[in-house]
Amino acid sequence: MKTRKTSTPARRLLRRSVACCIALFGFWLLTLASPDGVTLQALQRLGGSPQLVTAALAAELGTPPAAELSSGSGWQKMLLSESNLLSGWDRGSSGKSNPTGEPDDEEDQQKLQVAPQGKVVERSFKASDTDGYAKIDDVYVQNKTTKQLDLPAIAALSPDIQLGPNSAPQVLIMHTHATEAYTQDGSDVYQASGTARTTDPNYNIIRVGAEIERIFNEMGLSVIHDKTLCDYPNYNGSYDRSKAVVEQYLKQYPSIKIVLDVHRDALIGQDGTVYKAVTDIDGAKTAQVLLVMGSDDGGLSHPNWQKNFSLAMRIQHRMNTLWPGLARPIALRSSRFNQQLSNGSILVEIGSHGNTLQESLSGARLFARSAGQVLLELQE
After folding, report:
1. What is the CA radius of gyration of the chain?
2. Residue 332 in contact with residue 144, Cβ under 8 Å?
3. Which residue range forms the structural domain that includes residue 46?
4. Which of 61, 85, 206, 313 is 20 to 30 A from 266, comparing alpha carbons?
5. Residues 205, 331: one domain?
6. Which pLDDT tens digit goes with each residue over 130-169?
7. Quick check: 226 and 249 in contact, CB under 8 A?
8. Mind spelling out the 3-state secondary structure of the chain?
9. Count of C-beta atoms within a 10 Å radius of residue 140
10. What pLDDT, in 10s, does the model give residues 34-62?
11. Domain assignment present for 94
12. How many CA atoms lie within 13 A of 201 on its CB side?
């Protein structure tokens, strides 16, 4: 039986020296053989090649055993750590973001998976003191920034919002990613424009926004619901386009103090398993609700982010009081999500792409009744 020779420091030094010499020799040959600019382009292509990087790392570090690559359940290896919005992948500082504009959602960096009928796995998201969440009373926060949070101080802040009479618009509901849709089920069948996406407003996230609008109107709030497809036909630049939409409405209607950007989440395991965020409320399966709040941690100006955050905490507390289990822990992120435009801006995710439309409409109604109570308390 042959024994595997272990790598000594001397061997590692020799190997690295030889690799360095080969690289320098190759660079010299490229310089001699290539016209101006071609060498640089070639090196840039090599440096950007994930295959080259992987091969280089494998050569230096060795290939991990197959058992290490396959260990862990689908849930433990959940892509993006529960959610594409909760991951450590930072829109505010990532090279994939647009440095001159509003960063795009990272969902375009992954391929959504459509689960076969009956293969969606249900998951109810809850938090506990041992999960690493920040907490005050019944409000849990998943802090994905570098900031140290003083939750009691933030909770004590006034959102600095006063809603005028409902004779003028008070609330704007809009959708940066309006084509986001859910798992097709029963009579909720649509013509897809992409995986879990459709331009049909009867089945995409616009339908969920309409349900929130309906409940707000019943409660006496004055609402404008914008139905612009900011993510279609081009996904990139969605937040720049939705920013222009919000700015237009705020200029036209200074009475608007609340801006809700309504989305749905996407939950996918590395093995392709599709999960849905769901809870049981009054015997009905109901999509859970996630509030995503921005900050200035990514380097873009957002001086009043804590006021937005204090409003989100009030709404989260009301959801927890009225319908325990409805709300997932608040996600605090480094990006702004256009929330710098108003102290009353909140990004709300109703369910995930594994949920059905009916489950999400149920979650939207309960969110709207919770948020509506908080907003009416801000009315003059």
Report:
1. 24
2. yes
3. 9-63
4. 313
5. yes
6. 788 999 999 999 999 999 999 999 999 988 899 999 999 9
7. yes
8. CCCCCCCCHHHHHHHHHHHHHHHHHHHHHHHHHCCCCHHHHHHHHHHCCHHHHHHHHHHHHCCCCHHHHHCCCCCCCECCCCCCCCCCCCCCCCCCCCCCCCCCCHHHHCCCCCCCCCCCEEECCCCCCCCCCEEECCEEEEECCCCCCCHHHHHHCCCCCCECCCCCCCEEEECCCCCEECCCECCECCCCCECCECCCCCCEHHHHHHHHHHHHHHCCCCEEECCCCCCCCCCCCHHHHHHHHHHHHHHHCCCCCEEEEEEEECCEECCCCEEEEEEEECCEEEECEEEEECCCCCCCCCCCHHHHHHHHHHHHHHHHHHCCCCECCEEECCCCCCHHHCCCEEEEEEEECCCCHHHHHHHHHHHHHHHHHHHHCCEC
9. 22
10. 444 444 444 444 444 444 434 443 443 33
11. no
12. 11
- The domain that holds 210 is classified in CATH as 3.40.630.40
Residues 58 and 188 occupy one common structural domain: no
Domain count, the chain: 2
End-to-end CA distance of the chain: 85
Please state, rounded to an integer, the average pLDDT across all residues of the chain: 79
pLDDT at 110 over 70: no
Return the residue matching tokens 């873009």.
Answer: 300
- What proportion of the chain, given as a percentage, has pLDDT over 70? 69
